[in-house]
Write a structure and sequence with these properties.
By secondary structure, the chain is an all-alpha fold. It has helices at about 1-15, 25-40, 50-65. Keywords: Signal. This is SCP domain-containing protein. InterPro entries: CAP_dom (IPR014044), CAP_sf (IPR035940).
Length: about 80
């Protein structure tokens, strides 16, 4: 029950983006912080936010949007813009 409530709260925060500006964190940093809180509860090491990796992921998401596909491999006839 507690895990479901925690997951629900994380989902709620992600949906509305509450508190990110008040905490002085970007949305991505807020998500990383919430994930690390949950990892800590499970005895796992914290993940480190990687700005370069986040930029590559954002570029990939934009390419997928612009070329109208939802897959990691490129569809036939698609050429990466990144």
């Amino acid at each position: 029950m507690k895990k479901a409530l925690t997951s629900g709260l994380v989902a709620f925060l992600l949906l509305i983006g509450i508190g990110t500006q008040a905490l002085g964190q970007t949305f991505e940093e807020q998500v990383a912080s919430l994930v690390n809180q949950e990892r800590s509860k499970q005895g796992l090491n914290a993940l480190t936010y990687n700005t370069a990796l986040a930029k590559m992921a954002e570029d990939k998401a934009k390419d997928m949007y612009n070329k109208n596909y939802f897959s990691h491999p490129l569809p036939p006839m698609a050429h990466p813009s990144i």
